[in-house]
Amino acid sequence: MYAEFYSLGAAEEVTGSKHVIEIDGTSYLIDCGAFQGSRAEAERKNRNLGIATDRIESVILTHGHLDHCGLLPLLVKQGYKANIYATPATRDLASLIMMDSANIQARDAIYLKTQAQKKGEKFDWTPLYTEHDAIAAVGQTVGISYNRPMFIGDGISLEFYDAGHILGSAIAAIKIKKGGEELNILATGDLGRKGKPIIRNPAIPEMAPDYIILESTYGDRMHDSSDDAVKKLADIARRTVKNKGKILIPSFAIERTQELVYYFHLLVDDGVIPEIPIFVDSPMATNATTIFQVHPECYGEEIKEAFIKHHKNPFGFNSLHFTTSVQESKALNDHEGPLIIISADGMCEAGRIQHHLIHNIQDPNTTIMTVGYMAENTLGRRIRNRESEVKIHGEWFKLKAQVEEINAFSAHADYKEMLEWLKEVDTSLLKGIFLVHGEKKSQVFLKKYLEENGFPNVNIVKYGKTYELS
């Protein structure tokens, strides 16, 4: 048996996960995500899948974030006909994400064509894929529940374990048995954290892996404690009430929005903060919250007890409002404070959050609160870095709003949490760790940190480089 591993995305960068395990010339693709960054770079990277679809036996989808599932419709459009394996919750969330992406691209095409016509310029840009392609990708997705092994190729079995990252996220345990030889591989996807609300802690797979493909998003960072983060959240809320201002929270529609709603719910219930109108201004977040409600198999015990035993909805309360129409969204900009707006996109690169920023970024009574990872060269990273002036929709705006960062809400394990997880895994047969999904600086730190703590064979994966699996 000859086996090798290589990466076609999220190698020495964070977004666009696309990794390949090749067994005797047959390829198994782990994730097929969209690159998120500047428009020009995203366009260049997302147009090229880097692999012929007829070489792929199966696709393994670890979870439903765009940077892991966002190019599956393109894969199908280019001729992939076989199965895509995911947990049932991931299938539902990925369907939502891919359809939304197709809709955004369709709207972008109309907008960009209109702008080009106004300038008398030639326009030939087309979306990567359409709703039809997204629907086809969902149709090829096979749901596998946690801890239910399934063969996905000749001598290749797959078992999902809860990654504790977002609803339905999975660690992929891949067992290969061919020609009397065995090879075990763990692919973490995005590894979550212990003690998060709503979902369970990352599981420890019942496998002794030969290799681990490990994400490294927070490879050089430590998270604040959840208690400190909730206290900071309360302090910002009270300050906002006093100043009659607004809190703008750029948030991914899946997991982060539901978690924030949950924390605000607890703070109001406990009398820590007064009721403040909270608007979830994202149609996708509204739909995602509905998906959360129909997948209790992914809940932690605290949520199960509240939601199932006591029929108490942890995702909704009196001061919470979900906007649906564009008109409702626009009206929020005329709404007097105090109020909280949670809106997508999480990195501020698209969506309704950009319009809220345009109307509020120059108001010192506004607080922009970042609660997750902001990729390099995104508007969210520039705001988080407190640049004095930022460009939105082609216009420059002074950053006069207050900027707060709470990284305890991140769904990614930090470097100490990754080490703790690794020490619980049976690494008695471990030959090597491959670091993916991280910026170079983070990976260099994490490699050194892991090597100093008993894991000597750590590789920072290079784009397109082939690594033999013995």
What's the SSE blueprint?
Elements lengths: L2 E7 L8 E6 L2 E5 L8 H8 L9 E5 L5 H4 L2 H6 L6 E3 L1 H32 L11 H9 L1 E3 L6 E4 L2 E7 L7 E9 L2 E7 L23 E5 L10 H18 L2 E5 L5 H14 L8 E4 L1 H11 L7 H9 L10 E3 L3 H6 L7 E5 L8 H9 L5 E5 L8 H6 L4 E4 L2 E4 L3 E4 L9 H10 L7 E5 L3 H13 L5 E3 L6 E3 L1
Parallel strand pairs: 3-4, 4-5, 5-6, 10-11, 11-20, 12-15, 12-16, 13-14, 13-15, 16-19, 20-21
Antiparallel strand pairs: 1-2, 1-22, 2-3, 7-8, 8-9, 9-10, 17-18
Could you walk me through the main structural features you see in this protein, from its secondary elements to its overall organization?
With 470 residues, the protein is an alpha/beta fold. It has two domains: 278 residues, 4-Layer Sandwich (Metallo-beta-lactamase, Chain A); 184 residues, Rossmann fold (3-Layer(aba) Sandwich). 33% of the residues lie in helices and 23% in strands. The chain is built from 14 helices and 22 strands. The strands form four sheets. The protein has a seven-stranded mixed sheet. β2 and β3 form a beta hairpin. The protein is globular and about 70 Å long.
